[in-house]
Inverse folding.
């Protein structure tokens, strides 16, 4: 089923354009790294504060930087989909790509959990106030997953070389 | 170049895993270094004003950690490809961007981030913009090394 789905995505005009252009792929890669920094910056600042770094930072204004995280994620989603369309079969069967997608899904669910269960409390975590253990666990998991996502993404071409 | 003949350089270049492992450290460091500086730069530019600058300064050790991670992994990646990198214009642009970005970060750390003013002076904002541009420049020229370098 996966194979059939992947095959149906081969040869889209946009995918072929990305694949055959002499400059589009590289440009998308540069954007993917800029998106990475934007996304990770907002996430790392919030996660580190909740874990106890720079505790005099009130959590609420850090949490309000969420749109920045979405901008970074949006850039990487669009560029990432374009990478994928340039070679659906190659990416789809790559274990490092599959792991990256699972980690992104888990990071998304973890962030959703934060929004539903913990976001209502961010106003309580003002300057110098320790966040709850619950929040620390969620933010520790977040940092771990994003580090894993970067790692799986970077190792992806090496797995492709092995296949 | 002699650097390329070291055992480490040969392993990095020759094995399937050597190069990507150091690239992975380079990307994790990028996330910390540029990501956290972006937050600090945006605050200096006037976003998220309830965040005290002097407390954001406590994120700087993580920025320096990211920088050291990238300096070390960068040196190893350079060693594996020394001739190509050294004669690459993209590589020289990247080094220049990093130098500017580093001087700006040290300056921000030593001046603007020491004072808890809500509104930063224009000079501070110029530094923040210079910081953002230099790190974007470092990322873009870094990407180009892989594509524009002439093989020797």
């Amino acid at each position: 089923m996966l194979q059939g789905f992947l095959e149906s995505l081969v040869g889209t005009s946009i995918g072929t354009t990305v694949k055959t252009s002499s400059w589009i792929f590289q440009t998308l890669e540069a954007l993917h790294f800029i998106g990475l920094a934007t996304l990770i910056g907002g996430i790392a600042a919030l996660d580190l504060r909740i874990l106890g770094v720079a505790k005099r930072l009130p959590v609420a204004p850090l949490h309000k930087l969420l749109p920045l995280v979405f901008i970074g994620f949006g850039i990487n989603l669009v560029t990432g989909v374009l990478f994928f369309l340039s070679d659906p079969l190659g990416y789809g069967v790559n274990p490092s790509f599959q792991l990256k997608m699972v980690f992104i899904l888990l990071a998304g669910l973890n962030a959703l959990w934060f929004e539903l269960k913990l976001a209502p409390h961010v106003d309580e975590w003002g300057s110098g106030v320790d966040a709850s253990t619950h929040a620390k666990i969620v933010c520790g998991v977040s940092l771990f997953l994003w580090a894993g996502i970067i790692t799986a993404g970077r190792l992806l071409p090496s797995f492709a070389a092995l296949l | 170049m002699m650097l390329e003949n070291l055992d480490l350089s040969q392993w990095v270049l020759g094995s399937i895993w050597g190069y990507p492992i150091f690239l992975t450290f380079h990307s994790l460091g990028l996330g910390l270094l540029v990501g956290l500086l972006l937050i600090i730069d945006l605050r200096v530019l006037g976003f998220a004003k309830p965040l005290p600058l002097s407390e954001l300064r406590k994120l700087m050790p993580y920025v320096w950690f990211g920088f050291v991670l990238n300096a070390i992994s960068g040196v190893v990646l350079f060693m594996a490809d020394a001739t190509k990198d050294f004669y690459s214009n993209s590589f020289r642009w990247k080094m220049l961007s990093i130098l500017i970005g580093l001087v700006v970060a040290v300056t921000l750390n030593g001046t603007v981030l020491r004072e808890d003013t809500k509104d930063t002076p224009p000079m501070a904002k110029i530094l923040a913009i210079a910081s953002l541009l230099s790190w974007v420049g470092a990322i873009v020229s870094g990407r180009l090394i892989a594509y524009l370098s002439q093989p020797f």
Notes: The two ends of chain A are 20 Å apart (CA to CA). Chain A has one domain: 11-162.
